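*** Protein under study ***
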Amino acid sequence: MTAPTPVSTTPKGSRWIEQWDPEDETFWESEGKHIARRNLTYSVISEHIGFSVWSMFSVLALFMGPEYGIDPAGKFFLVAVASLVGACLRVPYGFAVARFGGRNWTIFSAGLLLAPSTALLFVMEPGTSYSTFMLVAVLTGVGGANFASSMTNINNFYPLRLKGWALGMNAGGGNIGVAVVQLLGLLVIGLVGAGHPRLLLAIYIPLIILATVLSARYMDNLAPVRNDTGAAKEALKEGHTWIMSFLYIGTFGSFIGYSFAFGLVLTNQFGRTPLQAAALTFIGPLLGSVIRPIGGQLADRIGGAKVTLWNFGLMAVATAVIVTASVQESLPLFIGGFIALFILTGVGNGSTYKMIPGIYRAKAAAKGMTGEGAAVYARRLSGASMSLIGAVGALGGLGINLSLRQSFLTVGSGTGAFIAFLAYYGVCFVVTWAVYLRRPAASETHASSATEAKPQLSYAEV
């Protein structure tokens, strides 16, 4: 076993760690895991608040009664705009970690959340124009981008054997921000009524300031991943980046899309009041967030591809229940199916993100790389890919909200959109099996070289 890799900062006090090798078990046990856990903790705090700000309009929509003059389709479009901007910004946010450092970018991105929160504090009142709300919805998108930089950063801190757990904890702690803001919205509506949305916003402004200060005080930058722009170009050319993006649309896209839309569906399709809707909307995102680390742990133990495959099968079943409930107008069955679907999106979020570093570690082995060389290759490519995969996956939230908007405009319910989602999960099931679990046929194996066959076999364990 090699000697521990020293942790050093230069210049003194700059919070740049110049050497980092989490795969070295001696170093990891003596120093690495303590530093990694500290950075994980404060990364979760900032990402958590970012998710709350990103999903703010899905909660504020419940406060926006007839006096605001915005119909259901208009509300769906506001949350869709926030979803789109958050998805697009994930690309530069993810690459910013290598350019500016994980700690430095977390400070900036956390502080930037003050812009949409303060803007909403001023404009949340009847009589504000729809174009103004649209502009502020664009600003809230910055909260969704925090996920990409946070996941890319934490991926660099942990060894491969713990990435499923670490990424699950980081993402789950962030995702739960959706449930928390919905729960706080319920509390505000329950205590003072739907006429006081500014109270919800006033809660978040001091929390944003606190998160920014904590990031500056306790987080670190990793110098070994600094200015690695070549990894982004390699990730763009890698087919697995786009395959995993397609699958992540089905898991995270579903989670964030349903989180934004659930309350609006309950009020517009099932006639629930804002208070009744708010009392239910936080449950699904809460369970989906809490379960995400478990999805990552399952993937660590039995393989991310296997967990992802069967998870998509169960998501299709849950969606079939939702379609049935929508047709029969059964609110209890609808809520039960949706909560099951939220839980499954959380499991799938954890398992798909565990697959990413595993895929690139398998590719490194297929190239004949070993030891630190293989670890560096996998870390570079998986970190860059996560930025792209997170961005494309988040576009699924946009697709869900636009699909539901169109479904309500054409048939007056979300049934048509749910049928489309069911079909998508079926395609994801097939893709997961075909790319990551299907063994090559005997004739294919015979025609291929041994080095070509091994990567296909090893992907089943990612």
In short: Strands lie at 16-17, 221-222. Residues 17-461 form a domain with the Growth Hormone; Chain: A; fold (CATH 1.20.1250.20).
